[in-house]
Amino acid sequence: MATRLPSVDAVLVGFGWTGAIMAQELTDAGLNVLAIERGDWRDTPTDFSPAYAQDELRYYWRHELFQRLNHETLTIRNKASETALPMRQLGSFLLGSGVGGAGVHWNGQVWRFLPSDFKARSHNLQRYGKAAVPDDMTIQDYPVTYDDLEPHYDKFEYLCGISGKAGNLKGVIQPGGDPFEGPRQREYPNPPLDMPYAPTLFGKAAAGLGRHPFPHPAANSSRPYTNPLGVQLGPCTYCGFCEKYACGNYSKACAQTTILPVLMRKKNFTLKTNSEVIRVNLSPDGKTATGVTYLDETGQEFEQPAELVVLSAYILHNVRLLLISGIGKPYDPATGQGVVGRNYAYQITSSVNVFFDDKILNPFVGAGALGVMLNDFNGDNFDHTGLGFIGGGYVGLMQTGARPIETHSTPTGTPAWGAEWKKAIARDYLKTTSIATHGAVMSHRGNYLDLDPTYKDVLGRPLLRMTFDFTDNEHRMSDYLTDRAAEIAKAMGGREIKANYRKGSWDVVPYQTTHNTGGAIMGDDPKTSFTNKYLQSWDVPNLFVLGATAFPQNAGYNPTGTVAALAYHAAEAIKSQYLKAPHQPLVQA
Amino acid sequence: MPLDRRALLGVGVLACATPVAAWAARYSGAGVIWSPNTSAYPTATDLKAHYVYFTPDEAAFIEAACARLIPSDATGPGAIEAGVPLFLDRQLAGEYGKGARLYMQGPFGKGTATQGYQAKWPPAGFHRAAIQAIGEHLTKGGGAAFHKRAAADQDAFLKDLEAGKPDLGPDVDGKAYFKLLLQNVMEGYFSDPIYGGNRDLSAWKMIGFAGARYDQRAYVLSYGKPYPLPPVGIGGRPAWTGKA
């Protein structure tokens, strides 16, 4: 029997980036806010100590900061005709758990999507005609534009203290920045990080081929920084342990280093950790969320009534909670009807290694978003006529740290073990670097999320089931990006290169990216989207769903900047419109 | 400290293994919550040279396989000198070997090539079952056990295993086992020495990895120059402990 607790103004489910942003905004508006997080409390001095944060085995390979799959995982398959089996071990993507979410172990790559990314359907139809978008490619325009989100992107960049160089200030192209980016109103708050040798060689080679390289915008602080909330970040020390690790140095922006020191002091904010929301409760007519039910770590059940319910967990958890709570019509790939689980997408990555004989690169000196990038082949920055695909991605050389269990690249033809392998790694480790490509995935009728009929979590609830594969569009695009990367690799003048194309079906084993998107997307039509442009549920107006859950398809950029901008966009609408007329839709269907 | 937290009342379904999770926590208007000196420093591996998990037969296979996967030669240390068998033993005896973080509920299916780890055992059990199956496969009809074979013969078998050629029965996927074995050996060879492998930072010295260093700012712009410092681990480096 659940214990019924006193009502709160707003309850947030999950406490990573979006939960912290929404809590900060709603408490500023005077609301009494409760956030419920199923993982642990985590903070820099106690959990991310620089005395032992640089531990590859513990944090990457033993998954200490990640979600425990024994508690909950998902099932996976490439197509609906296969039987989905559980993802028993993390691999392709690394789900977070605990305060700060996956934002604790990210690299800190902060991008804005291109203006045309928000018009993925209409833009491509207009430029390339009907044949460019096949019937089963279910891409949609966002219900918001780049211009709608610009102030929110800006707010997040200043919150994090992004180190970078603007490429387009109010429409004027800036030397040294990304000339393809949408116009921004002001420069980044911090200058770019110092650039090591390998990315510099890449930038030179790329410029020589007529490309437009620039320093990666980084949530790794290039100098001491105090953000608009008064929270301080310290300068990055290039220790080389960002992605898959937590920062012990207060240099990588995450909820703990940007928002929590202010938020946690507020009298109208409460956080409950080690408590898992098991469903969103609805009124009998199904049109109002009355709150949530959660279990604490002893298994005791609580009913938490709330005027406003916000799902701010990772996209896969948001979608699963909607399905388990019976909110919204589940997507059916056979008919194309239904919205929950629709338009799941991912990203497609590849790499090209460059091996030098004469250049010591010290690849272990690194940071998460430290690199030289180019967007010449991202989105629709290039003419796709005759290429057989739409979309694109960035190409870049990032020096993130070369932790040796993960990073020991050897040339083509080298065995994976034995004396030959050892000779190659001893010779090449310090003189090898890698160019990355990071491409969009368009949504597709056959790629979706639903509940698994067989496998359960530790509480006996069905696991989420992911049905996903790359389509021809993705493979053609990724091969194209890899060819472009290989051209630059050759121009860098090393001894040899090795191009690692992404072949075949999506494989859960090798790490690719934790950029899962969709499943409760935003849109203009309740038949093809779960939320309106303010991330408000069409069916249940006092329910908002944050995160990359809202993306109608994925772009060629890391998602966090857009995820945060959408959260600020939703928060602003709640504060300025929704609270004046609670429980009412902000957009008429 | 103005923070309301209740002690764990029992082993509930949500209880996690980390000490931090032993507290249900409710933080409200209390400021940032942390207690000094509660850092979760990693526990160093006991390096006394006896096996905790492996049986003598298993240890014989693992040592022989390690010696071929990363052999001792003039290039640098082999897996044996780097302490990889002991690392493996300690890992398999602990949380990792037990699959504490893995989803191990059935039913178990064979899976497609892209569905990843589908063994019905966690890593420790998978090693055990596979080593047993390999032993039976090699010795049936009077053949020699793996560790008694000549190096070239061992290499040939490992190559076959890598390619998934030997039939190890319905339960053991040899190719999947080889992947696990090689991964675990690489982990031992290249991880921090605190876990028992990479002894005296020998693998890091061989490749030139700087190790668990905190501040590399001075070396970002020193293009093409050799890194001047020796590697260091979480527990220091041999020169500090009198070993080098």
Overview of the structural elements:
The complex is a heterodimer of chains A (589) and B (244). Chain A is an alpha/beta fold. Chain A has a single domain (3-580), classed as FAD/NAD(P)-binding domain, CATH 3.50.50.60. Chain A is built from twelve helices and 24 strands. Chain A has helices at 17-28, 44-47, 56-61, 120-128, 146-160, 197-208, 255-258, 260-263, 315-325, 418-428, 472-491, 560-576; strands spanning 3-4, 8-13, 33-36, 74-77, 85-86, 168-169, 172-173, 214-215, 225-226, 232-233, 269-273, 276-282, 289-295, 301-311, 342-345, 348-355, 371-374, 393-398, 432-439, 448-456, 462-467, 496-500, 517-519, 543-545. In chain A, strands 1, 2, 3, 11, 12, 13, 14 and 24 form an eight-stranded mixed beta sheet that branches. Chain A has a six-stranded antiparallel beta sheet with strand order 8-17-18-19-16-22, with helices on one face. In chain A, a hairpin with a 5-residue loop joins strand 20 and strand 21. Chain A starts with a strand and ends in a 13-residue tail after the last helix. The model of chain A has no long low-confidence stretch (mean pLDDT 97). With 244 residues, chain B is mainly alpha-helical. Helix content of chain B is 31%, strand content 4%. Chain B is built from six helices and two strands, in the order ββαααααα. Mean pLDDT of chain B is 87; it is low at 1-23. Chains A and B meet through helix 2, helix 3, strand 5, strand 11 and helix 10 of A and strand 2, helix 4, helix 5 and helix 6 of B. Strand 11 (269-273) of chain A pairs antiparallel with strand 2 (23-28) of chain B.
